């Protein structure tokens, strides 16, 4: 089971990196890190970092869209 988890996690990680550079989704990267984090502590750290980065960027985007919407009505 560990070999399958590491293989699938590695494939998802590589696909996620490629799709992050090309127009695509970063969810594959998160999925790959999640699978790898069961066995590698370093992957767990990268997973926490990427989740925090995505959370902060979503907050900034929400704030930008709200301010844009409020300025539209003035």
Structure commentary:
The protein has 74 residues and is an all-alpha fold. It has one domain. Helix content is 84%, strand content 0%. The protein has 3 helices and no strands. Helix 1 packs antiparallel against helix 2 and helix 2 packs antiparallel against helix 3. The longest helix is centred in the C-terminal third of the chain and has 32 residues. The N and C termini lie far apart (59 Å).
Q: Characterize the largest beta sheet: strand count, sense, and whether it forms a barrel.
A: none
Strand content: under 5%
Helical segment count: 3
Class of secondary structure makeup: mainly alpha
What percentage of residues falls in helices of 4 or more residues?
Answer: over 70%
Number of strands: 0
Distance between the termini: 59 Å
From the alpha-carbon coordinates, what is the Rg to the nearest angstrom?
16 Å
Shape: elongated
The figure for the number of domains is 1
Mean pLDDT reading:
90
| Stretches with pLDDT under 50, minimum 5 residues | none
- The H/E string reads HHH
């Amino acid at each position: 089971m560990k070999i399958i988890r590491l293989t699938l996690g590695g494939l998802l990680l590589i696909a996620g990196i490629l799709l992050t550079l090309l127009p695509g989704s970063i969810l594959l990267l998160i999925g790959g890190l999640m699978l790898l984090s069961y066995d590698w502590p370093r992957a767990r750290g990268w997973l926490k970092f990427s989740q925090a980065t995505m959370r902060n960027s979503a907050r900034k985007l929400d704030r930008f869209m709200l301010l844009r919407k409020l300025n539209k009505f003035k």
